[in-house]
Amino acid sequence: MEEIRVDNPDPANPPLIVSVVDCVDFPLSFVPFHPPPNSKVIFVFSRGDSLCNRPSQLNHLTRYLTDELPRILPEHNMELSFYKAIAVSGYKDWGIKELKDLIFNIRNAESNVYLIGKRNSYFLVNFKVKPILVNLPLLHPWRKTLHIRK
Fold first, then answer.
1. Residue 53 Ramachandran class (φ > 0 left, ψ -120 to 50 alpha, else beta)
2. Total structural domains within the chain
3. In what order do the strands lie in the sheet with 82-87?
4. How confident is residue 140, by pLDDT bands cut at 50, 70 and 90?
5. What pairs with residue 146 in β-bridges?
6. Which DSSP state fits 94?
7. What is the C-alpha to C-alpha distance for residues 48 and 92, in angstroms, rounded to an integer?
8. Which of 26, 29, 81, 140 is most exposed, with minimal Cβ within 10 Å?
9. Taking CA 34 as the corner, what is the angle to CA 31 and CA 35, rounded to the nearest 5 degrees?
């Protein structure tokens, strides 16, 4: 997180942090972190196909996880001003389009986007989402758009 703070000194353009968590092991797989002030965070719960039989059931899983986050975050001393949660399946391509749309709607035009999480939890999401993020339009071509943190 310190590298993210150094890379993003402008408080007007806080980073968007996409934290990928394995929903099968949640809350045990949750890794606490302390993002820079005013950062926006999307919690992506991967492997939704392990708990859901159909893509439509991801909405119920997302609601459950969204309800659990306010209980989990204070336990880890995490105070976030803005966060969203979404359940996806990179293996079956469920929720990937919705995740892409969510990222495009939440990020600022000049904000950096960071994917963080354990390797096994974000492996498939990385290969589905990374090609989309690399081509994000930027106002300033020297700004980085995607960083992968393990």
1. alpha
2. 1
3. 82-87, 40-46, 16-22, 113-117, 146-149
4. very low
5. 113
6. B
7. 9
8. 140
9. 115
State the helix-helix crossing angle for 96-106 and 119-134, rounded to 10 degrees. Answer: 60
**Neighbouring residues of 115: CB distance < 8 A, sequence distance ≥ 6:** 18, 20, 122, 125, 126, 129, 130, 133, 146, 147, 148, 149
Helix (H) or strand (E) holding 116: strand 113-117
Q: Which residues contact 54 (CB under 8 A, 6 or more apart)?
A: none
Q: What type of residue sits at position 72? A: I
State which amino acid sits at residue 63.
Answer: R
Q: Confidence class of residue 146 from pLDDT cuts 50, 70 and 90?
A: very low
Tell me the residue range of the domain where 16 lies: 2-149
Q: pTM for the full model?
A: 0.79
CATH number of the domain at 140, please: 3.40.50.300
Residue 122 is predicted with a pLDDT of 53
Type of residue at 94: W
Percent of the chain with pLDDT over 70: 77
Cβ atoms < 10 Å from Cβ of 64: 15
At residue 86, does pLDDT exceed 70? yes
